[in-house]
Structure formats: structure tokens, C-alpha cells
Amino acid sequence: MKWCFLLWYFQDVLQIFGEGYFFAPELFLGAVLLLMSSEEYDHPGLIWFSFLGGVIWDARWTGFIGMTAGIYAVLATFFSSLWNSMPDTGRNKLLLFAFLGGSHLAVGIARCLLEMSLQDTVWVLFLRQQIVGLPMMYMIARMAFPREGLYGAP
Amino acid sequence: MPRRYREIENPWIHGGLAAVVACLLLLLSFHLPFMRYVVDGVSLTLRIPEYPALYLRARGTTFLRWLQSGESMRRRVDALERENIRLRILLAQHSLEEEELTTSSSPSLVSARVLLRHPLNWWEEIKIDAGASRGVRIGAPVLFQGHLVGRVRQVQPFDAWVRLITSRSFSIPAAVEDTRDLGVLTGSGEGQILLRYVPEERTLPVGSSVITSLLDEDFPPGIPIGVLTERGSASFGGFRSYTIRSGVPLTRLYGVQVMVQKEEAAGEKLATGD
């Protein structure tokens, strides 16, 4: 769980440094999904944890309290459902990375639509977020399956 | 395991509930003013763990600007803008024999970035990243490229809320520079700036500059606001309104300058070590 706190803070720091240049990558959501994939934590608790992280993020950065929180919680729910419905052989690095990448893209688009009124070069910020964030999402997927290949085989 | 307990473990129930709570919070954030205090409280609390990053960013930004070739030019433009404002103030002071305003209390400018501009309050207010710690006080004029864009309405230690001149709640006396006619400057709440209560018999020339007048204690006289663009067709009680076009694009406020007293700005420099 400490990874979630650390990555939320790291995401916050990246947002401070990158404000006006790129949106911070969604590291906190990545950490929550990583914990969900480990099966050591109960998924409902993690859904609410992602919601709380989103609320604080909204209060700090977007001003739309509930927006990021809702997106995080819904994505975490989808992931939980998908992960639980998968057989063990299907739970591999590729699936986790695909979901992390898709979630990252979805949250990025939401931020883009929100910030459109504040900045005219918002798509550039979005593209930079994806370029910076997707390798980080891959690193998170690797952390979940350090010894496995992309499809699960070692 | 009992069936009811298994249902509570169902992530869809929790996810759906979280989504509903998120929607409720979103609705509340639009309509309840206390949500602003939540936002301010979280910003203030996070200021402590964020301090190293904020400090490094401020230093890094200063360093990068120093490296940029246009730095000296920008400084010169800033200095000229400040000098221009000071000269206008001194000119107005001189013409009206206001000798009690000494040079030591002449204002200085503090630069700030726009943090929030809520789409539902687009023409009402913005949040900036300069607060009481940098000398910002309630009522202080807020400028963009040397033109008045609002006044500070609420101050936190590290940020402040600014009421824009397009807000219905904004109201200050203003003067037409060419004719010295006075009126009340206010906003329509929908992006327009109006000069109200101009006597009907007075016909003000369209294109005349509008500036702040001496009648408001918070605003130094002579700050440019915009130009008169249109005379209102309707008249009420013998008075007429004029539409003003701001001298700056109010839809592109990314950074502003807050006017503070010189001693407060000097205190800020000492605090930041600049």
C-alpha cells in the first residue's frame, strides 16, 4: 500500500514540475491496479482507495471534486471484474499492460477535455503525458510479473 | 460464506457506489461554496510535502528564463510597464494635487500564475498562486499586460481568488481618459465590461480609453482598463451604459500581476531570497 502513497506523491511532484508542459502520468492508478493484480489485497478496499486518491487529486489540481475519483473507481472496478474473470493462464503481463495503457489513455482524454477551456495547447500536453506515461505503465506491469515474458511464459 | 456477504464483496457494487458518490461530489462542487474551502484546505495541507518540489520548480524556472536569450528584453518590457504605471499614477496625483501619496507607498507588481478557472464561473473568478506570503491583500488590483483584469477577493497564505472585471459583482469607479467623465465599471457576467451611470446628455467618444479613477481607495488612478466600444441604446433614470472592450484578451489569462505595496513586495523578495 505504501507504493500507492509514494506514487500518488510522485505523480503530484511530476504535475508540479510538468505543469504547462505535460499532464502527470497516472502513476497512482497504476499502483492501485498493480496491487489488484497481486491478489494480496481485497478489491473493494482498493476501489475505495483509488476513489479517495482521486478526490484528493481533484481538490488539489482540477477543482472538479469527484471527476478523477469517479474515473479511477470505475476503472478499478472494470479491472477487478476483468482480472477475477480471467483464468490464471490469462493473467499475464500483456493483459495488465493493455489495461494500464488503456486506463492511462482514458484518464488522459478526460483531463484533456477538462483542461481544454484553460489551455489552448492541451493536446500537446496530452501527447506528452502518453509518451512519458506509457513506459512507466510498462514498468509497473513488469513489476507485477518480473520473471515472465509478455504472454506469461518465462 | 453467506450469500449476502459475498454480494458485499462484489466489486461492481462498490464501483457503482463510488461512481454515484463521485457524481454527487461533482454536483456539490458546482453548487456549494464551501467546496472551495475544501480545495483551499487540501492545497494548503499539501503545500508542506510539496514544498521541495515547488521550491525547485521556482528556482529551475528562474534559471531557464535566465538562460533564454529573450530574458533581458522581457525584463525591459516589464520594467517599462511598471514605469508606465508609476508615471500614470504620478501624473494623476500631480494633476489632482494628491501629495499625501508618497513615492514610498507606490505600488509594485507580483507575478502569479492562474491555477484554476472554473468553466461555470468563467467570467467571475480565477485562482492564482500568489497569496499573503507574497504581499497580496484583499482588494488589490490584478493586472495582465498592464491592464486591469480584476481585484483580489479572498487571500490564502499561498494563493488567492481574484474577481474578474467581467463579474457582475465587480464594481469600481472608472474614468474616461479623454473627457474625465466618471462611471461605475462592472461586468455583465457573460464576458462584457460595462461603464454604467454615465449621464444621458453626455455622449462619450467611442474608442476613448477608460482608466481607474482616484475615487477608489484600493486602486491607484490611471490603470488602463480598455476602450469604449458601444453606447447602450436604453437609458434608465437619465443614465446610460457603455460597453468597454478590454485592452487584453481575457480568455487567455495564464499569468497575471498583482499590485502590492512596495514594502510588502520587498518583504516577499527577502522571504524568497531573490
Write up this protein.
The complex is a heterodimer of chains A (154) and B (274). Chain A has 154 residues and is mainly alpha-helical. Chain A has helices at residues 2-18, 27-38, 43-62, 67-85, 93-115, 122-144. Chain A has one domain. Chain A is globular and about 45 Å long. The longest helix of chain A has 23 residues, at 93-115. With 274 residues, chain B is α+β, with helices and mostly antiparallel strands. Chain B has helices at 3-8, 11-31, 34-67, 71-95, 262-272; strands at residues 107-116, 125-128, 141-144, 147-155, 160-164, 171-176, 182-187, 193-199, 209-212, 224-236, 239-246, 255-261. At the A-B interface, helix 1, helix 3 and helix 4 of A face helix 2 and helix 3 of B.
Radius of gyration of chain B: 23 Å
Strand content of the residues of chain B, in percent? 25-35%
Low-confidence stretches of chain B: 1-6, 269-274
Strand/helix succession of chain B: HHHHEEEEEEEEEEEEH
- Record field, number of beta strands of chain A: 0
- Tell me the major beta sheet of chain A: none
Name some characteristics of this structure.
heterodimer, A: 154 residues, mainly alpha, B: 274 residues, alpha+beta, 35% helix, 30% strand, disordered N terminus, disordered C terminus
Quick recap of the structure?
The complex is a heterodimer of chains A (about 150) and B (about 270). Chain A has helices spanning about 1-20, 25-40, 45-60, 65-85, 95-115, 120-145.
Secondary-structure topology with pairs:
The complex is a heterodimer of chains A (154) and B (274).
Chain A: H1 2-18, H2 27-38, H3 43-62, H4 67-85, H5 93-115, H6 122-144
Chain B: H1 3-8, H2 11-31, H3 34-67, H4 71-95, E1 107-116, E2 125-128, E3 141-144, E4 147-155, E5 160-164, E6 171-176, E7 182-187, E8 193-199, E9 209-212, E10 224-236, E11 239-246, E12 255-261, H5 262-272
Antiparallel strand pairs in B: 1-2, 1-12, 2-5, 3-4, 3-12, 4-5, 6-7, 6-9, 7-8, 8-11, 9-10, 10-11
